[in-house]
Amino acid sequence: MVFHQDLSLHAHELALARGGRRLAQGLSFTLKGGEALLVTGPNGAGKSTLLRVLASLLAPASGRLSLDGAGVEAPGLAAHYLGHAEALKGALTARENLEFWSEMLTMGDFGLSPDEALARVAMSHAPDLPVSYLSAGQRRRVAIARLLVAPRPLWLLDEPATALDAASQTRLAALMKDHLASGGIIVAATHADLGLPARELRLGAKP
Amino acid sequence: MKALAALFARELRLANRAGGGGAMGVVFFLILVTIAPFAIGPDLNLLARIGPAILWIAALLSTLLGLDRLFLSDHEDGSLDLLEMADTPLEAVVLVKCLAHWAGTGLPLVLAAPLFGLMLALDGDALWGVTASLAVGTPALTFIGAIGAALTVSLRRGGLLMAILVLPFTVPALIFGVSAASAASGGTVPFLTPFLILCALSLASMALAPFAAAAALRSGG
Hints:
The structure holds two protein chains of two kinds.
Chain A: E1 8-18, E2 21-32, E3 36-40, H1 47-54, E4 62-68, E5 79-82, H2 94-105, H3 114-120, H4 136-149, E6 154-158, H5 166-181, E7 185-189, E8 199-202
Parallel strand pairs in A: 3-7, 3-8, 5-6, 6-7
Antiparallel strand pairs in A: 1-2, 1-4
Helix pairs in contact in A: 2-4, 3-4
Chain B: H1 2-16, H2 24-40, H3 44-67, H4 69-76, H5 79-84, H6 90-118, H7 124-151, H8 158-166, H9 171-184, H10 192-220
Helix pairs in contact in B: 1-6, 2-3, 2-6, 3-6, 3-7, 3-9, 6-7, 6-10, 7-8, 7-9, 7-10, 9-10
């Protein structure tokens, strides 16, 4: 799977607000296919808010945002969002969860099958176990497998390495490099080093 | 279309798995219908006369019982965010979720109604009437309730607020549902008059509720 070569994400003078409080303003950046952006900053600086704005889940307080080359109106329709909540149903098995999201989030093409995706995150031993029985790190790995079952060019990752052990963090870094190599874009909010060649956008502290 | 079919299957599966609460509504319905004769007394004529009303109130409360989970669980685990980012319009997602919710909770009530009606000394015509009126009327309860569920989705303990918001708007369905059920066993009103109004209420709420609920979910951000 290779994404459109003219893929690019533009943010122009974005301002972020949450609950009526201005968190950041004047954010401008352009990311082309194959580029990653790490969003850093102290707690409450607006990292998660920026990702939710990029995912079209929140409207920016002002400014413009566009994703060219993906054939969608809003960037969110071509994005995978991995937030703090994993969007997995505890009563369903890992395979059932992934089968559902691959149907729901596909943009026409299907990526890896749920079993292949679970193998990529070293979870192939537990496809038929209800997700509620998995540990926090294992649930995280199933959630990361979701990024692989429905190809979408823009990955929005909010603290993707939370709860992952060292081996899983290495695997996540490899998956992210593969995504960049196939022409995708990654925006990740993180405190940790993700082992990725990336630009950094530092959001300021609030007094 | 395939995405919506997958959503429908997932909702039904979740309702039937442990903790999904699919059977809870029917059990609650049974309990309400069972305790009514204890409160009213063993007067069979009286029970038969107010039986359709008891069944309808019990169905209304049982429907409300499960409705607060309609969007709340998806909101809590982050699924709602991803459903908003899917290619499928959120209105269609809401419509399918409501239909699946009705199939999982409303339909069992309809199927159980003739059996439970026997406990209220309803005769054949009244049993048939109340079942038919519940079959076409309970979708209205689910869809009206979906608007309340969407409005209260980001509130902690929004279930009670949802019930308070929704119950006044279910009054028309209750009035025409009970009058259709009563008309089936005789009376001055022909059966079809309230029955068709009830059908219209269901269809209208089915057409409007997905847009209202989707707008409420989007602004909940």
